[in-house]
Structure formats: C-alpha cells, structure tokens
Amino acid sequence: MTPWESYGEAARDSISTVLDREEVDRPRPLGRALDLGCGRGQFTPELARRGWEAVGIDYVPAAIEAARARGDAGVTYVQGDVTDLPAANLGTFDFFLDIGCFQGFDAEQRQAVGRGVTALAEPDATLLMLAFGPTRLRSLVGGTSRDEVEAAFPDWELVAVEPAATSGLGWPMNRTSPQWFRFRRRA
Q: pLDDT tens for residues 34-65?
C-alpha cells in the first residue's frame, strides 16, 4: 500500500502550490533536487518540469524500473537506500522532497535518513516533507509526529508546518492529519 500515491492524485493542486512556494526567491537555475523514496516516479518529473536537476531514489528495484520506463525527460532515477544516502554517491543537493517515505521507517532508520540528507545538503538547502500523522491504524498507514520528524533533523531548522489538503481522500487516509514540514539547513 502506497498511501502517498493516492494522496498525490487527490491533492495534485495542493502539492503544486507547496512546490510553487518552495521556489520563491530562489536563484535560477534552481539547482539539484532529490526525491526521497520516489517510488514509480510520481512526483520527480514535476521537479524537472519546474527547472530542478531532478534525481529520484528508491530502494525497490521494480519501482525504479517502472519510473525509468516512463521516460521522464530531465530525471535520473537511482536504485538506492535512503537510510544510507552517502553510499549512493549522488553528490549534493539544494532541495529534498519526501512525500511519504520517512514515515515508513522506525526511529533508527529515521535518524539514518536525517544524517544522510544532512551529509548531501548544500548550505541553505531545504527539505519539504509530507508526513501523515500517527493514527490507530498505524499498521495500515504508518504515520509520524512532529517531534519524531524534528528529532531526525537536528541540524535543520523547522521553518514551517502546515496542514496538508485532505479533500478527496477516502478512508483511512482522511483520518491521518497529513502535514507539510519545511526545513532549512542550519549554517
């Protein structure tokens, strides 16, 4: 089950608005963006269309094969472990996007993601994360709290948290209180 793909379809306009805000006041060209846990490449091509040098990474070989098969222009897809980003030799990034990946990990794995993102971050890099909140249905959806997200990124400043759109989501997704977390790498 990949709830973020369902969310992406239901909230396409909302995601576009959040990405629009991310690009405000950024110099052109936008730089490099890494889509963490990109799956079959639902969101990575949007980054490339906007002018980012877009890279998507996912651990599941079949997902990366499906993403590559789409033939998205300007996107590189890499099979790799987001809990060990330095091992993928991807270089550094100005922007990180996570729509649903982080929440599927346990506390130790989340710390590893945070360390990896930090190791690949350019000065002043930003991270935009969509995470579904914890629910009684954790075995179906997963979920994470604000405290858990912040704990994984101690070298980052949380600059914004806002509720994500829930319009069009069915059960159980409409019970998850999705949130957008925006972080900036501390100097």
A: 999 999 998 899 999 999 999 999 999 999 99
At a CB cut-off of 8 Å and minimum separation 6, what does 37 contact? 57, 58, 59, 82, 98, 99, 100, 101, 102, 104
pTM over 0.85: yes
